[in-house]
Amino acid sequence: MYLQPRRGALALLVALLVLLLTACKGGPAPAAATAVPPTAAPPPTAPPPPPPTVTAAPRATAGEAANAPASAAPGATEEPSEPAATKSVFDLPGITSYRSRTTVSVLGPAFEDEDFQKLEILGEYIKEPPAQHTVINTGQKENLEAIQIGPKSWVSFGGNWVESSGQSLPDFTSGLTMFDVTDIEKDLGKLNKAGSEKVNGYDTTHYTFDKGTLLKLLDKETSKEDIAKIDVAHGDFYVAREGFVVKWSMHLEGKGVNENKPEAVGAMDLKHELYDFNAKIEIAPPEMPSASDNLGLDLPLPDGATQSFSMEGMAVYAIPGLSVQEATDFFTTTLPEAGFELDKDTSSISDERALLTFKGNGLNLNIMLVPKDDGVEATVSTNKEEG
Description:
By secondary structure, the protein is mainly beta. The protein has helices spanning 9-22, 182-185, 211-217, 221-228, 291-295, 324-337, and strands at 97-107, 118-126, 131-137, 144-149, 152-157, 160-165, 192-199, 202-210, 232-240, 245-255, 265-275, 306-311, 314-320, 341-342, 348-349, 354-360, 363-372, 375-384. It has an 18-stranded antiparallel sheet that branches. The protein starts with 8 loop residues before the first helix and ends with a strand. Residues 1-81 have low confidence and may be disordered.
C-alpha cells in the first residue's frame, strides 16, 4: 500500500529507523542516489547516498555559498529517448551534487482527523565524499532529520540524535504514492506528450497521464484496485533528454484517497523535483554527545572495541576476537575497579549470551553480550539509581 499521513506516522517512522540503526549489521556502503521518483527500484551500486528525496537549508548546509549557480545543465533541445527514464543522477558526467524536494498535501473530510495536512521532505546529496542530508517537515514542533556521511549515519527526532555505523538511511519518500512510480517511468511512450519545457536547468519533454492511462500502466493488481476506486487521478512528468525525471506531480481526488476512510471524499497532491545541480553543498556530522556522555560514565572497553550506535542512555559496541565468556570476564573485572558492583541475582551468564547488571556511582548499568561475527556485540544501557 502507500504511506498515509496518519496519526503518529512520523513517530512510527522514527521508531523503525532506530530499529534499523540498532541492527548494526554493517555491510556495503549505501547505494547511489537515483534520479528516478521515490518508489523506484534500487539503482545500480555506486557511491553511497540512497535515492533522491531531500533538500535542506538546515545546519548541514551552513557552508553553502550563497547564490551558487545551478550549473552544468545541458542546453540541447532534442527530446528524451523513450520508453524509459531510469538513470542515476550521479551516473551523469559532471554532476557532483543536487537537491530534491518532495511535498504531500491533503484536504477534505477524508483527512480531517489527521495530525497534519502537509508533509515536506527536503534533501541534499553529494557524490564525493558520499553524503546525504534529509529533513522531513510536518509543520509540527517535532520534525525528523537524518544525515549520512559514508558508512556513518545520524537520525534526529525532536532534537535527539541517534548515531549508527554501517547502515544506510532508507528512502524516506518510498511509499508516498498508491502505486510504484516506476510503472510510469518504464513506459513513457504510453503517456501523452504535452510539449517541451526547460525545468531546473534541463531541457525536458513534458508528459501527462490521466486515470485511464495510469490503470493501463500499473503492474500490481492491488495498485489498480486502489486507483480504480478514486474519481480523479492525473499527473505530469518532466524527463530530461539525458534519461532521468527532473520533476513529477500528481493529483488524486474522490473517495478512496485515504484507506482509513474509504467512503469519505478527499484530495491528495504530490510533487517531487530535483534541482540545484552542482550547487556548493557541505554536509557535516551533527553536534552530539559522546557515547560516554550518553551513558553517563567512561566505560572501560576491551582493545579493538568500536562503537556502532549511540543515543541517550544507550550504546552498542562491536568487540572483535572475544567470546561471550571472555567479554564477561573483562567487564566483571574492570567495572568493580571503576566503582560498580555486579548484581549476581539479576545477572545471567551462558556460553551464548550474558546479561550483566551493575550498580554504582549513582547508576544502574546493564550490559548484554551476544556472539556477533568474529567476536561479541555489547549493548550497554544506563539509568540513574532511584533514591
